Amino acid sequence: MARAWFYGTVSVCVLVLSPLSAFAHKTGDKDKTTAAYYIQPSQVNLDQLLAPPPLLGSAQESTDLATVMQAQSDRTAEQAVNAEADHERSVFRFADVLGPQFAPANLPFATGFFTRVFADEKAIVTQTKAHFDRPRPFMVDSNLSPMVEPRKTPSYPSGHTTWAYVMAIILANMVPEKAGPLFDRAAAYGYNRVVAGAHFPTDIEAGRISGTVIDSVFFHNQTFLADFYQARAEVRQALGLPSMGDMDR
Predict the structure, then answer these.
(1) CATH number of the domain at 9-28+35-238, please?
(2) How many CB atoms lie within 10 A of CB 150?
(3) DSSP state of 146
(4) How buried is residue 197: exposed, middle or buried, by Cβ count under 10 Å (0-12/13-18/19+)?
(5) In terms of DSSP H, where are the helices of the chain?
(6) pLDDT category, 4, cuts 50, 70, 90?
(7) Which residues are CB-contacts of 32 (< 8 A; sequence separation ≥ 6)?
(8) 69, 143 contact by CB (below 8 A)
(9) Among 43, 41, 58, which Cα is nearest to 121's?
(10) pLDDT tens-digit series, residues 159-211
(11) Contacts of residue 86, Cβ cutoff 8 Å, sequence gap at least 6
(12) How far is CA 108 from the centre of its chain?
């Protein structure tokens, strides 16, 4: 079992103390299953682990909305460029931390691995968004104009932020030498969703938690771990880092 990096004390407790049955997503007598590479959406019940988003019209929602409006009002040209660029969900956006050798041409196996992880993560987040069904900021206040394509899918949790933390945790376990900057990059990725007008701050926090919970389930899956070790070896070789071998298997 890998000794994995996870974000935040609460998240580590989820990994260490909670049995996997706690994550089961119950849908009545039958679990609805979809094609998955490593974990089924039915294995991760985020709608019972996340606090619900602020109620429409509540003081907390007003604060949430005011933060989005302030972020849009204060954003610089550089922030706008970064927010637009981070609309793309590509693990290779983390090359600004890991360096130019972290590129698809150098990582054929790892690229496929990250693609499979994204597919499983997205299926889990999609079911969670449908459960909470929170409208996007620009749907709540027409004075907001999102910088990116205005998706009308539910807002909570942020899918981009969930994805960013899923990837940051995996990358931090591949390249622990860069763990701090990788988590900082995931945080920036999430904040850029607020700058872009696509999400509320509470969506971002829920995404951080969601990504950590999802990875805690990934790291209990033997098929995932087998691919993770192979991808890690490829990534470290491409970055010119020494092999980690079997030290944490």
Answers:
(1) 1.20.144.10
(2) 13
(3) -
(4) buried
(5) 9-17, 46-49, 59-74, 77-85, 95-98, 108-132, 137-140, 159-174, 179-195, 201-218, 222-238
(6) low
(7) 41, 42
(8) yes
(9) 41
(10) 999 999 999 999 999 999 999 999 999 999 999 999 999 999 999 999 999 99
(11) 93, 160, 188, 189, 192, 193, 196
(12) 22
d(CA 150, CA 161): 17
Among candidates 190, 129, 122, which has minimal Cα distance to 156? 129
d(CA 200, CA 191): 9
Buried b / exposed e over 76-104, threshold 16 CB at 10 Å, is: eeebeebbeebeeeebebbeebbeeebee
Rounded-to-integer distance, Cα 68 and Cα 201, Å:
7
102's tokens: 């972290």
